[in-house]
Prior knowledge:
By secondary structure, the protein is mostly beta strands. It has a single domain (15-203), classed as monomeric porin ompg (Porin, Beta Barrel). It contains no helices and 13 strands. Strands 1-2-3-5-6-7-8-9-10-11-12-13 form a 12-stranded antiparallel beta barrel. It is globular and about 45 Å long. The two termini are 20 Å apart.
Amino acid sequence: MFDVPSPDILDRGKIYGELDGTARPVDPVYTFEPRVVAGLGHRIEAGLNFIGLSEPSSGEVIFAPTVKWRLWDGGTSGWSFFAGDDIFFPVRKTNYNAGNYFYAEFAKVFHSGTRAGFGGYDFTKNVVAPAQRAGGQFTLEQPVHKRLTLAAEWYTGNHAAGYFDPGAIVKVTSKITLYGCYQIGNAGVTNGNHQFLWEFGYNFN
């Protein structure tokens, strides 16, 4: 998906890279976030995010190793359950030593191809707000063509990740996928808390 983790898990030995960016129209700020993910087998994948590159001003820079595990796959029922964890290590302009984002989510694929996900999250202090934040995370994907999927996601709560994101996913080739959505803040929209998010994904093998 865009920011909320997808139910998808890379197969063993598969490697996926992505470059994410945002563009805020009010008091313009542009951010860039490269990341890479590798399939480890046994329905587990792990990756590394590099967070904090921005223009015209630079902020906190963070290395974030990640892991995601599909603990249960219901097969033909379409149901699955997965969980994951991201650890945040600030290396520039730091205001905390380490932080954590844990999540767990159910997903359901319907016969129409629609896929929905719902679960919960916990961010430790200073990662997305001055205090700990916990709440719900939701995803919805609707294929309209073999190369085009309409999608939306939502993190509940008033914090740095608290957005509703409607958008689309375009499978350009077997290796290249483009993502685009508009992020609408749970609070402060009239004060400029909204922005465009784009992502360029590449499957290396």
